[in-house]
């Protein structure tokens, strides 16, 4: 072989190695847009732990198609303007095909961008009704507010026997939706709203509002508050004769307070595998996996399952292909939850339960099935 | 209904006294130096968090408050020396000082958020939530702390400004800084003094209000906003005016809840402010 041929062969070999698909080393990268700073940062931390745990588990089992998975976390601060900037960064800089989001106002803001850029967005944490049809690329893995409030309103009216209810709601996207849906559902059943008071996100002095609500003499108070439960519950306890309260999933932080014994809460039904929860508690040194931890773990696993199928089909990993695959698979089940997607709605069908707070547990008093 | 109104009045009075502390400390500094010290809200927040942190280390609340006041006093002096005095030496405009003050505010807010997390935090003191009944009115022990400390500090500040040489010097500088300069009253030393006093007082306000409700890094600016309205409506430089109007605004905010939804209370506060500015721009208690 002359020198020319040797050089050409070597060059061809080097070129072949250079362009050979390095898939085994190439990570699968997805995005998570969470409130990592700001007033909602504690919620963001819970959500991040759920995603991180899912990533840890999938990578421990060899990844997807032999490839490791990575999530790039961007901070939305719970604000739509910051959320949009961070979402664009995930798409333009990190080139992610799918993003897990948080916060209704952020989801509403990024929805149109998700449509335009054909990026899949999974929402496992926000419940504003506007998320139901904001984008064909935005899928909700938990019921929206109107689903939960219908179940809760019916329980309060039929089983608790409340006819006059007062509403205290947070003046934010999910809060106003929660208020509107409950008022509509409760009035449809024949109930009366005797007081209807808004509080501001991050407020700490609730006394005037609570006094006004008590003065209206409701049978029960419906709360839609996303943050600030500690001072709210403390101040409720300082007002003699304050009625029993009820709320949706957002009320979960109230459990454990003596003042909240006897309260009612609706929740997304999930049955966590105790082994999974124990492992999670050990790794992250948390008392439990928490609602957001479970839901964000579930959402990440939905993306992983859809990704595995897309890659198996030999298709490109794009938002469009992931969305189509999720609609094709429809039923997802993991050690935390069972979900059913169908093309008629962007929101997965899940069971909804009603819990009553006792001193020692949240007792399930009713369950409505998903389908 | 009478009980409901009395309770609203009592709660408004307590909240107003708390905001009054922020107002009197702000007016003391602003009237003397002419600097719109927005970072005052940051010192309010820092004071709350310092007191909280110390109580989590089993320091009794009263001592934690005093320590928080001392820390904020030093922090305030640092702001005065490193920021405002430097800007004064370069003849910076009031706008430049306002922006610098905003910068200090954001640094302080985010510093506490990073050090202590942005969570809503409550003081771990067991007796805090206990309630006392006075006729038809219920007040928590924490509310009594707010009211008690507020009234004592207000009285002390009044006595200081009226009855001491230092207080007289402060009033002289506030009334005419140029004359104070040429008559050797050393205004810049007075500025340090008022900054120290104002910072210590606002730290106690932050600690007391936080003790009653909860603390969060970003709510200090809202408190300062209402306090500023009280300062302007009460007459800039009038400690009595700032304190009285703070109480008046808080009571009025609570009372209007009877007829208006709660979210209109801040709007009402600003509406009153506009009315004050139009009818009596010098403020209710302004001196000639």
Would you mind describing this structure in some detail?
The complex is a heterodimer of chains A (371) and B (288). Chain A is an alpha/beta fold and 371 residues long. Chain A has helices at residues 3-19, 41-60, 80-92, 104-117, 145-160, 173-189, 207-215, 229-237, 274-284, 291-312, 319-329, and strands spanning 28-34, 69-75, 98-100, 120-123, 138-140, 164-170, 192-199, 220-224, 245-247, 264-268, 331-333, 338-340, 352-357, 362-368. In chain A, the strands form 3 sheets. A 7-stranded mixed β-sheet of chain A has the order 7-6-8-9-10-13-14, with helices on both faces. In chain A, strands 2-1-3-4-5 form a 5-stranded parallel β-sheet. In chain A, helix 3 (80-92) runs parallel beside helix 4. The longest helix of chain A has 22 residues, at 291-312. Chain A starts with a helix and ends with a strand. Residues 15-24 of chain A have low confidence and may be disordered. Chain B has one domain (2-116, 134-279): ABC transporter involved in vitamin B12 uptake, BtuC, CATH 1.10.3470. Chain B has helices spanning 2-33, 40-56, 61-89, 94-116, 141-163, 165-175, 177-182, 187-212, 220-234, 239-256, 265-279, and strands at residues 131-134, 137-140. A two-stranded antiparallel sheet of chain B has the order 1-2. The mean pLDDT of chain B is 89.
- Based on the coordinates given, report the CATH architecture of chain B: Orthogonal Bundle
Q: Look at the helices and sheets of chain A and give the structural class.
A: alpha/beta
Give the helix tally of chain A: 11
Computed over alpha carbons, the radius of gyration of chain A is 24 Å
Overall geometry of chain B comes to globular
Q: How is the CATH topology of chain B named?
A: ABC transporter involved in vitamin B12 uptake, BtuC
Low-confidence stretches of chain B: none
């Amino acid at each position: 072989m002359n020198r020319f041929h040797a050089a050409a062969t070597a060059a061809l070999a080097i070129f072949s190695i250079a362009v050979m698909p390095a898939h085994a080393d190439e990570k699968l990268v997805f995005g998570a847009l969470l409130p990592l700073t700001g007033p909602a940062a504690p919620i963001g931390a819970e959500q991040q732990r759920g995603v991180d745990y899912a990533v840890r588990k999938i990578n421990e089992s060899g990844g997807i198609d032999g490839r490791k998975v990575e999530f790039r976390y961007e901070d939305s601060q719970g604000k739509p303007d910051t959320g949009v900037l961070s979402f664009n960064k995930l798409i333009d800089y990190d080139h992610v095909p799918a993003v897990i989001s948080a916060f209704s106002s952020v989801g509403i803001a990024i929805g149109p961008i998700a449509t335009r850029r054909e990026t899949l967005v999974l929402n496992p944490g926000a419940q504003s009704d506007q998320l139901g049809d904001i984008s064909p690329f935005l899928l909700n893995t938990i019921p929206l507010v109107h689903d939960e409030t219908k179940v809760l309103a019916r329980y309060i009216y039929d089983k608790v026997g409340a006819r006059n209810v007062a509403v205290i709601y947070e003046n934010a996207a999910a809060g106003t939706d929660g208020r509107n849906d409950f008022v509509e559902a409760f009035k449809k059943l024949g109930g009366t709203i005797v007081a209807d008071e808004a509080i501001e996100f991050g407020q700490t002095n609730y006394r005037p509002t609570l006094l006004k609500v008590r003065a209206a003499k409701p049978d029960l108070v419906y709360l839609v508050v996303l943050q600030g439960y500690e001072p709210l519950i403390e101040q409720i306890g300082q007002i003699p004769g304050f009625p029993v309260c009820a709320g949706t999933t957002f009320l979960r932080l109230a459990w454990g307070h003596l003042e909240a014994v006897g309260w009612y809460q609706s929740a997304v039904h999930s049955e966590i595998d105790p082994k999974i929860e124990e492992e999670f508690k050990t790794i992250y040194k948390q008392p439990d996996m928490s609602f957001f931890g479970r839901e964000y773990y579930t959402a990440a696993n939905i993306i992983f399952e859809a990704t595995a199928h897309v890659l198996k089909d030999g298709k490109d990993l794009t938002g469009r292909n992931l969305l189509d695959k999720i609609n094709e698979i429809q039923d997802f089940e993991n050690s935390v939850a069972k979900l059913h997607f169908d093309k008629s709605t962007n929101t997965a069908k899940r069971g909804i339960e009603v819990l009553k707070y006792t001193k020692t547990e949240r007792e399930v008093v009713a369950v409505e099935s998903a389908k | 209904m009478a009980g409901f109104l009395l309770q609203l009045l009592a709660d408004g009075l307590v909240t107003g006294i708390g905001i009054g502390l922020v107002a009197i400390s702000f007016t003391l500094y602003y009237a003397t130096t002419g600097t719109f010290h927005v970072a005052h809200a940051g010192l309010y927040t820092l004071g709350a968090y310092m007191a909280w942190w110390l109580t989590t280390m089993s320091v009794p609340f009263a001592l934690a408050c005093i320590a928080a006041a001392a820390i904020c006093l030093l922090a305030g002096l640092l702001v005065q020396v490193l920021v405002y005095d430097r800007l004064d030496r370069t003849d910076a405009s009031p706008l430049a000082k306002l922006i610098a003050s905003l910068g200090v505010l954001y640094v302080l807010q985010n510093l506490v958020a990073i050090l202590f997390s942005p969570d809503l935090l409550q003081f771990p003191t067991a007796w805090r939530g206990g309630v006392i009944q006075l006729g038809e009115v219920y007040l928590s022990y924490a509310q009594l702390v707010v009211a008690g400390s507020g009234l004592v500090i207000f009285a002390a500040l009044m006595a200081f400004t009226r009855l001491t040489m230092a207080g007289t010097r402060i009033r002289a500088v506030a009334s005419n800084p140029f004359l104070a300069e040429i008559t050797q009253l050393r205004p810049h030393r007075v500025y340090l003094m008022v900054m120290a006093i104002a910072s210590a007082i606002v730290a106690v306000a932050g600690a007391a209000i936080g003790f009653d409700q909860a603390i969060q890094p970003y709510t200090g600016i809202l408190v300062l906003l209402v306090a500023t309205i009280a300062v302007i409506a009460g007459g800039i430089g009038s400690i009595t005016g700032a304190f009285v109007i703070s109480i008046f605004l808080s009571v009025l905010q609570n009372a209007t809840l009877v007829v208006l939804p709660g979210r209109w209370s801040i709007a009402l506060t600003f509406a009153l402010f506009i009315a004050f500015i139009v009818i009596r721009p010098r403020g209710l208690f302004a001196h000639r």
